[in-house]
Amino acid sequence: MIAHLESGGLTRRHWVVFAVCAAGAFLDSVDLQVMSLVAPVLLRAWALTPVQTGLLVSAAMLGMLVGSVLFGRVADRIGRRPAFQITVAVFGLAGASCALAADPVQLGVLRFVVGFGMGGFIPVDTALLHEFMPSGARARVLALWGLAFPLGALAATALARWLLPHVGWRGVFLAAAAPALLLLVARRAVPETPTYLLGRGRIAEAEAAVRWVTGTPVADPATLPPSPPVSPDLPASSGLGRARVLVCCLWFCWSFAYFGLILWLPTLLVLAGMPLAQVLGYGIGFQAAAIVGRIAVLPLLARWGPVAVVTTTACAAACLVLWFGVLPALPVLIAVGYALSMAQEGGFSGIVPLTPSLFPTHQRATTVGAANAAGRVAALLAPIVVGWFAGTDLYPVFVLFALCFLAAAVTAYAVLRPTRTTSGAPLAA
After folding, report:
1. Alpha-carbon gap, residue 58 to 207, rounded angstroms
2. 226 belongs to a structural domain
3. 124-150 pLDDT per residue, tens
4. At 167, which CATH number?
5. Predicted model pTM
6. Which residues make Cβ contacts (< 8 Å) with residue 335, sequence separation at least 6?
7. Are residues 26 and 159 in contact, defined by beta-carbon separation less than 8 angstroms?
8. Does residue 356 sit in helix, strand or coil?
9. Inside any domain, residue 328
């Protein structure tokens, strides 16, 4: 049955699954990015210190940490479909409620709840996509799904630039969260994944799910072409714990540098003297460059594999972030910043498909959740660390970011390299 799903090509229903998952990731990113865009306004409106602002931005990251760990396990127990519905409802309702916050404490609590739903959504979405897609297209589809995050950040920046002067920060929060509630209806069209259903012994439902996504009856296994060969370098069950630790280290290093820069970028530029309107315009270009970076690595994933993509982009990001940290003249700042955005987003396009490919179905969402949780720990710490330096010398922070990118490169190349297939193509199993 799974061979029937694995051996086919992409159908219209595969793209329905992709669209629903990408829409959730898009709205997740919009809601997360909005907080960093309204932070400069709140800093002045509520007379916040840079450290307080960092704590407020980090509230969602703390929620994402808890949500990633919890909902990864929930999805492996109750299924991907119900877990998806729960997480979208949580971050949609809490995101809209942020518009009603009366003070920093209330907003911080609500942002924690938003992050709780967001953090739970990512491992569920990743596992669902991985298990519905045919093996030959899996890595590329997951990388393409990752485009939803910079697209969401770009949309959030445009939304804030357009709405902030007219409806204020409360209106921006409300506009960013409202579409998430519509996704609950759309998600009902997608069944549970066949792989999960088979693991639970629900054979008839699994066959129905395969028929739904492929558009054809489940074929006799004897008539199917052989499944793609699986690399002998895939971790054995005894090595899954070690692989999980290493993947978590990779996510931590990359996320610390990534979120430390992304979540503080608008405020850092305002503190450096750039007008807010110019900062928002710069942010749009920064996110557009991120989209270009995601697209640019798609053909490289098929030719090089995810590990080579991660190591190459990590080394490039380390060099660029050191240059960006000196805050050169505006033309250079634009060029270097946009190149940095391309490199760090391109690296995520390798990390995202690599992670679920390393683990079996019954541990997939849990492990992706653990890896995301490690990333959320980094994302939680990074804004606070940047806040400590915001009033003094910022350049040591950029040096730290560069070291994190280099550590990610070393981890991916020296430790995760054996998880590639012998042909060098990304894993698909």
Report:
1. 43
2. no
3. 888 888 888 887 778 788 888 888 887
4. 1.20.1250.20
5. 0.71
6. none
7. no
8. helix
9. yes
